[in-house]
Amino acid sequence: MRIGVITFPGSLDDRDAQRAVRLAGGEPVALWHGSHDLEGVDALILPGGFSYGDYLRCGAIASLSPIMSEVVDAANAGMPVLGICNGFQMLAEAHLLEGGLIRNDHGSFICRDQVLRVENASTAWTSEFEAGQEIIIPLKNGEGGFIASEETLDRLEGEGRVAFRYVGVNPNGSLRDIAGITNAAGNVVGLMPHPEHAVEPGFGPDTAAAMRSGVDGLGFFTSVIRRTLVEA
């Protein structure tokens, strides 16, 4: 399975996302933000970083990059799309996901291993998990506070579109402890934590078993690969 990882000016986790795809058994395809060619990929990842220096609003300028017109069309046609951190911000700015992301309520950049609860295990990117399962995923952001109107929040909750929720501590003031959401179809998912940093023993979060042993993030990438192969 070919999974495209788009590099924007200021992306810094694109290579990590490519490695995660490879470790999960997929073929990573490097895509450039200035292109209109998705090169026949089966899924897309918008990686973390500081696209365009986070000027204007995080993800706002990147959401207008040439390739995003193809991303929007592909997402609306059902292609799986994952937005991680800055990629989540882009998806919100491109109106592929509802709500928005603002400055952390404590005003500081935060970096920590974060416990998440999987709320929706039926999306293209979460089918390898179980609803209610708790996983540990690294988090690093300065503008990760998820916001939306009460009406939108109620709809997201009612439709089962909250994909992940923070457990133990809310690191950025996200409303209702929301760490990630999905679109109505379940093919587009965005989250602030970084699953690509928890895919290989020795380089992931600490767990009760051993230091740096956490690989909970690998499930995101195996989910989309296996789901796509089954549907094919």
TrEMBL record:
Active site: C85, H194, E196
Pfam family membership, one: GATase_5
InterPro entries: Class_I_gatase-like (IPR029062), PRibForGlyAmidine_synth_PurQ (IPR010075)
CDD domains: GATase1_FGAR_AT
Cellular component, GO, one term: cytoplasm
Reaction catalysed by this enzyme: L-glutamine + H2O = L-glutamate + NH4(+); N(2)-formyl-N(1)-(5-phospho-beta-D-ribosyl)glycinamide + L-glutamine + ATP + H2O = 2-formamido-N(1)-(5-O-phospho-beta-D-ribosyl)acetamidine + L-glutamate + ADP + phosphate + H(+)
Subcellular localization, as worded in the UniProt entry: Cytoplasm
Keyword Ligase: yes
Keywords carried by this UniProt record: ATP-binding, Cytoplasm, Glutamine amidotransferase, Hydrolase, Ligase, Nucleotide-binding, Purine biosynthesis
Associated pathway: Purine metabolism; IMP biosynthesis via de novo pathway; 5-amino-1-(5-phospho-D-ribosyl)imidazole from N(2)-formyl-N(1)-(5-phospho-D-ribosyl)glycinamide: step 1/2
Its EC number(s): 6.3.5.3, 3.5.1.2
Metal-binding is among the record's keywords: no
Xref: SMART domains: GATase_5
GO BP of this protein: 'de novo' IMP biosynthetic process
Source taxon at top rank: Bacteria
An example Gene Ontology molecular-function term: ATP binding
Protein purpose: Part of the phosphoribosylformylglycinamidine synthase complex involved in the purines biosynthetic pathway. Catalyzes the ATP-dependent conversion of formylglycinamide ribonucleotide (FGAR) and glutamine to yield formylglycinamidine ribonucleotide (FGAM) and glutamate. The FGAM synthase complex is composed of three subunits. PurQ produces an ammonia molecule by converting glutamine to glutamate. PurL transfers the ammonia molecule to FGAR to form FGAM in an ATP-dependent manner.
Record text on subunit structure and interactions: Part of the FGAM synthase complex composed of 1 PurL, 1 PurQ and 2 PurS subunits.
Protein name: Phosphoribosylformylglycinamidine synthase subunit PurQ
Organism: Agromyces luteolus
